[in-house]
Amino acid sequence: MKIEIWSDIMCPFCYIGKRNFENALALFPNKQYIEVEWKSFQLDPAMPEVPKYQDDMYMFVADRKGLSYEQSKQRHEELIRYAKSVGLEYNLDKALVTNSMKGHRVIQFAKTKALGETAEEILFNAYFTQGKNLSNKEALIELGNEIGLTEDEVNTSLTDPLYKDKVESDSREAQALGAKGVPFFAVNRKYAIAGAQQPSEIMKTLESSFSEWQNENPETALQTTDGESCSIDGACKNL
To answer: Which domain, by its residues, includes 179?
Structure first.
């Protein structure tokens, strides 16, 4: 059963949603049947790489939403506590607000090497915990190495228009499915989970959708006629 997850690496609830999903999946008894694909979604494609108040998230949000600095800081302190409750450390006073396209391009390349989830985790942590600038090429090369990508591969992700197209295609796909924000989980393209829901709620969706999927995809038990063969441990009959 396939689960597609759309997120933006600069969305605080996406990182929380990722952890909640992982906690639910760890307890799901049929997790070996689950295929997860991470997908890109830019919440603000028009964001400049160096926006006003880049190094002050509290002021950046206050300016954008018409809040006082104190109101913005209070909301972010609540967010920090929420993140801590699921085991995440948010150092928002260190965060550098920027356009997320370059980070998403790296993720798209990482997916070609089956490193999509690894890239998501490392870039989330880089932004929310370490205060890395995810539009800085040198920072992305360093993070790419942590993911398992070479410098040349990171450079390719940032220059080949294919990876920008993949980011934009993912975003259009989510909107076509009815996503109004992220995180957004599509389960078997029949059910959706919107937002960073609690593991218990995610588990309910997993259980009901898996039961339906299993009925539609029953395992076939083959009647086997045995002959001489080699087993997966390398042992061969009569040799």
So the answer is: 2-50+98-216
Could you tell me if 15 and 63 lie in one domain?
no
Residue range 106-115, pLDDT digits in tens: 999 999 999 9
Tokens of 212: 């339906």
Q: How many CB atoms lie within 10 A of CB 111?
A: 19
Q: How many residues are listed for the chain in this entry?
A: 239
30 & 93 share domain: no
Report pLDDT digits (tens) over 138-188: 999 999 999 999 999 999 999 999 999 999 999 999 999 999 999 999 999
Token pair in block for residue 90: 């948010």
> For a pLDDT cut of 70, what percent of the chain falls above it?
93
The answer as to whether 201 is a domain residue is yes
- Taking a C-beta distance cutoff of 8 angstroms, is the pair 154, 141 a contact? yes
Place of tokens 């260190």: 94
Choose among 10, 66, 3, 74: nearest CA to 35: 3
| Residue 84 sits in the same domain as residue 104 | no
Biggest alpha carbon distance in the chain? 80
Q: Tell me, what CATH number does 21's domain have?
A: 3.40.30.10
Instruction: Give me the helices (H) in 28-115, please.
Output: 57-65, 69-85, 101-111
d(CA 33, CA 201) in angstroms, rounded, equals 19
Instruction: For residue 40, give the H/E element and its range.
Output: strand 35-40
